[in-house]
Amino acid sequence: MTINSLLFILALLLTPFVLRVNKPYKKLIFLILNIIIFILSTGSLQSLIVSFLFIMIPYIYCHYFKKKWPLFIVLSLSFIYFNQYGWIFNTLRIPMLLSIQVFGLSYIVFRITDFVINYDYIDQKKRTLVNYLNYLLSFYTIICGPIMQFEEFCDSFHNAGKIPHDKNDIYRLINRIVNGYIKVMIISYFCYHVASLMFDSMRSGITLVHFVIFAIANVWYIYFNFSGYCDIVIGSGALAGLYIPENFNKPYLARDMSDFWTRQHITLTRFITNYIFTPVVKTMVNHFGVERIDLCQYVGFFIAFFIAGVWHGTTVSFIYYGIAQAIGVCLTKFYKSYMLKKLGSKKAFKAYQAKKSVYICEVICTQIFVYLSFVFIVFDFASLMF
Amino acid sequence: MDLRAELQALFQDFFEDEDLILEDHLTAEDIEDWDSLAHIGLIATIEKKYNIKFATAEISRLKNVGELISLTKKALE
Fold first, then answer.
1. Interface test with chain B among A113, A256, A277, A290, by most B beta carbons within 10 Å
2. Taking residues A277-302, what's their average pLDDT?
3. More confidently predicted of A383 and B13
4. B residues 15-74 near A, CB within 8 Å?
5. What secondary structure does DSSP assign to A195-210, as a single string?
6. What is the distance between the alpha carbons of residues A77 and A90, in angstroms, rounded to a whole number?
């Protein structure tokens, strides 16, 4: 299933009418709809059985066991196996056997993680199987996110007061959905073809002009495709009274890479911060002391972005992408602490940052870094380099 | 000294701001230097001071200072 498949469009059109009826059975109707879409999007019976086990085992496990780490080990290994990471299998010389696909695997893994980590703190009334399955399989967010938290999803689903009734609100949301489709189907389609053309022409040798056009088109393809997709699901979700969190906030106005990741794929940043960066850095701080927190954060950035890179795709290119992002955020931190030292006080640093010329310079530098570091995703640029 | 006053002193020391008054509704957005790294440092400092441990889920669910005070109180009980 993709954003322009008939199945997805039909679901988008149908669901607002179903969910606007604020009856207790609406979550069951939504569940039936999600299950139908999930079954139709899953390739084979074998994949369907495996998907069922992959989804149900964590739910049952949480009910009976307190220790969560054995489940996370199994989840991580299953994720690597189902996604078939060539570089891991080849390095360890493990033959890739059965090809089993779990539809929406990447985002399902995030949601299961959120559910499992928070399980003991979630209100028992919310921890029902219907809520769990709707959360995991919600057709709005299964393809490409945003990554919702379990309780955020439950609260949103049961908050009928958010269903828009005002004509202007409804038109505004429809406008957002149409804009989303324009972004995905026209602008990003065009950018992808330009990037693709440049990538192909670089197979015989990388030239500066081809590289620059490729890097820019690639970044804008990612932005318009993903933000357009988010516009569609956030807009249509809101029509059905379902709050889906924003995932973009003008990322190309960011003044450094740290700022960039609070504006781009916001829900992924929130997830990585909460469940990878914070535990890693806190463990290190507990061990080495709070006074070494600055040093610990650099290790935290590399671990967090390495995992984010691996999650994004199955080739080695994605590891370069993750490491490049970590370098970008570390450079931001170095730059800030250097300037703070040089200028002598926070007040002076603030005044320096308030200058328009500084802001423009920082935005341009950030954009250049994004163009350079994003060449590793979508197209396997590493294969051209090595 | 009660817990709130102790935590207020800890916050003032951590953020180097003697005028900082702890109120329940305060969030990271209200305190200038309270970013994700400062949050980790703050939590680690509280854990060390009281010899307690917060779970990852407890930390990620904190919404404001009031919840942090309640969580610390609960951990001390």
1. A290
2. 94
3. B13
4. 36-37, 39-41, 43-45, 47-48, 56-61
5. HHHHHHHGGG---HHH
6. 16
Preceding peptide of A146 cis, ω within 30°: yes
Q: What is the pLDDT of residues A42-71, one digit of tens each?
A: 878 989 999 999 999 999 999 999 999 999
Residue B1: band (very low, low, confident or very high) from pLDDT cuts 50, 70, 90: low
* CATH classification at residue B70: 1.10.1200.10
Domains contained in chain B, number: 1
ipTM, 2 dp: 0.90
Residue in A with minimal Cα distance to B43? A282
Inter-chain touch B59–A277, beta carbons under 8 Å: no
Is the pLDDT at A13 greater than 70, yes or no? Answer: yes
Higher pLDDT: A20 or A186? It is A186
CA A279 to chain centre: 19
| Alpha helices (H) along A84-166 | 86-91, 105-118, 129-137, 150-157
Domain boundary among A217, A239, A261: A239
Q: Choosing among B31, B34, B60, B67, which should be mutated to test the A contact, i.e. which has the most A CBs within 10 A?
A: B60
Angstrom distances, CA of residue B28 to CA of A121, A250, B33: 22, 22, 8
Contact A102, A82 (CB under 8 A): yes
Distance, C-alpha A6 to centroid of its chain: 24
- Among residues A216, A327, A222, A309, the alpha carbon closest in space to that of A264 is found at A222
The distance of A117 to chain B (nearest Cα, Å) reads: 6
Can you read off the two tokens belonging to residue A212?
């620059």
CB A35 within 8 A of CB A137: yes
Q: How many domains does chain A have?
A: 3
Query: Residue A381 is part of which domain span?
Result: 251-385
- Tens digit of each residue's pLDDT (9 = 90 or more) over A193-243: 999 999 999 998 889 999 999 999 999 999 999 999 999 999 999 998 889
**B44 → closest Cβ in A121, A277, A290:** A290
Torsion of CA A90, A94, A100, A105, to 10 degrees: -60
